[in-house]
Amino acid sequence: LEQMQMADCCFEVRDIPGRGRGLVASRDLQAGEEVLVDTPLLLTAAPEALGAVCSTCLRRLGSEPDRCQACSSTNHQVAFCSRSCAEAGAAQAHVHGPWLCRAQGSLQAWQLSAEALAGTHFLLQVAALRRAAAAGDGSASDRLQVLISLAGYIPATVPPPAHAEEANTAVRLAQHSADPATGARMDPLLTDQEIARLLILEQQTAYGIMAASAEAGRRRVRGGALYATASLLNHECLPNVARFDDFDGAAAAPGNTVAPFP
């Protein structure tokens, strides 16, 4: 996992009653001061944005994207902004490794609601991490532990989203489709409780990454980003920090989130 950058001793993690963990300033902060720069723990392309953004870094695709050949027979249509991103995606289980490619591609056979489809894509990424971790992938294991840890701090009183049951069923079916040789007795990669808490985590703490403005200034979500630290920032509609991301620019690594006080 890439190391985040932050101002020296400017905040601390605290348990906030009824809210879980959050970042609280540990000293006075100046207007315009940079609080942290964080790199995504997990990026998930929105299902409706597949084929328009890179599945590895969420950059907008150019005129000649590198498309996954294994997806060419389905409507999944995963694509990458460059050959290096395609290779990086295939090498990382949670981005577009072979198992995830088969699992997500199988979803096209079912009529899922938009919310359930997006949630299932995210859950299958986590399932791919668990599968890779069990096979000895240390990087996948580290990333998975941070995700499960974040989900573990969600208060038990928070209900799962309405599409949780639909997404749960879809994850089970996709796992079976991706591993047909193991038969019907396979153990689920994610428990029911983990699925519910992960969906709450994704819904409440992931940041929506917006696409560039379209006609009449309308913008669409290109995907979501979960951060190990930035996800603990205040997510209110009137936040006390401003978030800036740079997915299409060259000034910073894709996905960096800068959160300075206004």
**What structural class do you assign from the helix and strand content?**
alpha+beta
Number of beta-strand segments? 11
Number of helical stretches of at least 4 residues: 7
How far do the termini sit from each other?
29 Å
Q: State the shape.
A: globular
Mean pLDDT: 82
Q: Order of strands in the sheet with the most strands?
A: 1-4-11-10
Task: List the helices and strands in order.
Answer: EEEEEEEHHHHHHHEEEE
Overview in brief:
The protein has 262 residues and is of the alpha+beta class. Helix content is 33%, strand content 16%.
Q: What does this protein structure show overall?
A:
- The relative contact order is 0.18.
- The protein is of the alpha+beta class.
- It has a four-stranded antiparallel β-sheet with strand order 1-4-11-10, with no helix packed on it. It has a three-stranded antiparallel β-sheet with strand order 5-9-8, with helices on one face.
- The longest helix is centred in the middle third of the chain and has 21 residues, at 114-134.
- The protein has seven helices and eleven strands.
- Mean pLDDT is 82; it is low at 258-262.
- A hairpin with a 3-residue loop joins strand 2 and strand 3 (20-25).
- The radius of gyration is 18 Å and the shape is globular.
- Helix content is 33%, strand content 16%.
Question: Key terms for this structure?
Answer:
262 residues, alpha+beta, four-stranded antiparallel β-sheet, three-stranded antiparallel β-sheet, 7 helices, disordered C terminus
